[in-house]
Amino acid sequence: MFLGLTVPQMRAVARLHADLPLPRVRELLRSRWHESRLLALLILVRGFERGEERQRSRIARLYLANLAWVNNWDLVDSSAHLILGPHLARGERGLLDKLARSPDLWRRRIAMIATFHYIRQDEFRDALRIARALLRDEHDLIHKAAGWMLREIGKRDEPTLRSFLERHAARMPRTMLRYAIERLPPGSRSRYMKLGSYRLPKS
């Protein structure tokens, strides 16, 4: 359910209530209103970015315990790489693989988008691994997320993207492939689109 508020309005409210106690933020995150959930995530992101280690850990635990309410593409994209990505940066990243295998669409997208944190630091291994795990995913929102992250890799290291494409383009969903090659030269885009003939089977 939507209230009709804009993202800039939500960001302004988040700044005003940046010190809201975490139990209250949790209540917002579990709201039936989409904007309330987005507001909660914006507050959590702000608190995570500005908090000391103990507070960051508390925020990450709250986030992970309430993934069921991070249930729309904008909620995922405004939080996964800003909370979960850095939270796992110095630890075990196997959680990303577990999320990528989830039957829940949004957890799979969280796994992919969380790797944006590492991509921004020129660390591509996790993003490439999760993208491979999602090659046969049936949902367009996963294809877009994986293609987006591959494109971000290509912006920083085109040979790494091309290496991935040489191995996997023929098995990539068309939307994923189109997103991934968007910034390549026209000739390369044409070649990869011809190579990528894979279609998901009709259900």
Instruction: Note the overall shape.
Output: elongated
Strand portion: under 5%
Query: Secondary-structure element order, as H and E?
Result: HHHHHHHHHHHHHH
Q: Note the gap between the termini.
A: 29 Å
Pick out the low-confidence regions. Answer: none
The total beta strand count reads 0
Helix fraction bin? 55-70%
Helical stretch count? 14
Class from secondary-structure proportions? mainly alpha
Mean pLDDT: 93
How does the major sheet shape up?
none
Write down the Rg.
18 Å
Short description:
This protein has 203 residues and is an all-alpha fold. Helices cover 67% and strands 0% of the residues. Helix 1 crosses helix 3 and helix 7 packs antiparallel against helix 8.
How are the secondary structure elements laid out?
Elements: H1 7-16, H2 22-29, H3 34-50, H4 53-65, H5 73-77, H6 80-88, H7 94-100, H8 105-114, H9 116-119, H10 125-133, H11 140-156, H12 158-168, H13 174-180, H14 186-195
Structure write-up:
By secondary structure, the protein is mainly α. The protein contains 14 helices and no strands.
Characteristic terms for this protein:
203 residues; mainly alpha; elongated
